[in-house]
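The freezer alarm interrupted the setup, so I double-checked each line after restarting. Inputs confirmed:
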Amino acid sequence: MTDAKASPAPRMTKQRAAILDVLDGTDEFRSAQAWHDLLRHDGSSVGLATVYRSLQALAETGEVDAIVTSSGETLYRRCGAVNEHHHHLRCRVCGTADDIEVPEFEEWAARIASERGFARMDHTVEITGVCADCTAKGH
Amino acid sequence: MTDAKASPAPRMTKQRAAILDVLDGTDEFRSAQAWHDLLRHDGSSVGLATVYRSLQALAETGEVDAIVTSSGETLYRRCGAVNEHHHHLRCRVCGTADDIEVPEFEEWAARIASERGFARMDHTVEITGVCADCTAKGH
DNA sequence: TCACTTTTGACAATGATTATCACTGAGAAT
DNA sequence: ATTCTCAGTGATAATCATTGTCAAAAGTGA
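Predicted 3D structure, all chains:
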């Protein structure tokens, strides 16, 4: 039989290289458009559509993380190297955010992973609510 | 300065009543447009913008739940009654997803909420990895 | 009923993301 | 190194959910 023909053969173009480059510059979540702006400022003239396509492709292979905000925007950030793993508790009204850590959750995630035979686990936890101040103000 | 003007005073109009009515008909998550269609089929001629505005208002007061799908669409459902809350474990390579439940996490989230004085908590948990099959295939 | 405001609805406007499509260049074959 | 090919690119049009606009219609208290 012919070969399985697994990988769609990704090519290394200068624009893809540029994208991977800026991605490595920060580990913050940013929108495709934000990354595009950043690329422009860095002198690269990558097209917006290309940024969208590349981020999507990278997200599918797991090389970048993607999350969708409550306003429907998709944010991306480079994957891995994120040892400083923590989550945020954000107030939906005033927007303040606290860092929180959940060792129990990390352990739980790891357990589920091994139970089901999953590897290279990653997770995103978004926790929102209305803080005490805003609740007091009637929100 | 002038008055504090706290509550904007919500009015009970027939369209709002119709919306609350269909909302009570199902406890599934549906998009604003889907609810609108449903209303139309029920004979009500509520405007789309009105449906959006009402659902938004209801979501703010906590009377309905709102979630954002990975494609950026916002889904709503009547609040309460339903605590069939679960998350997904998704393979980044083949895309298969399993439902998983994390009572511990729910408890933990609730605890954090009360500790910090937060109210009306909500959370999103995205767990991804590479499943056993895909790992075996070298991914 | 009357005045006063909120709510509504039709439709234009946004804004993020995707589709188009001619063109370019990466990588394989020669 | 030179061709050959098709995946990748970019400018822009198209899509689609959602929001803004504003005159007309309908609650609510007096």
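Quick read of the result. Chain B has five helices and six strands.
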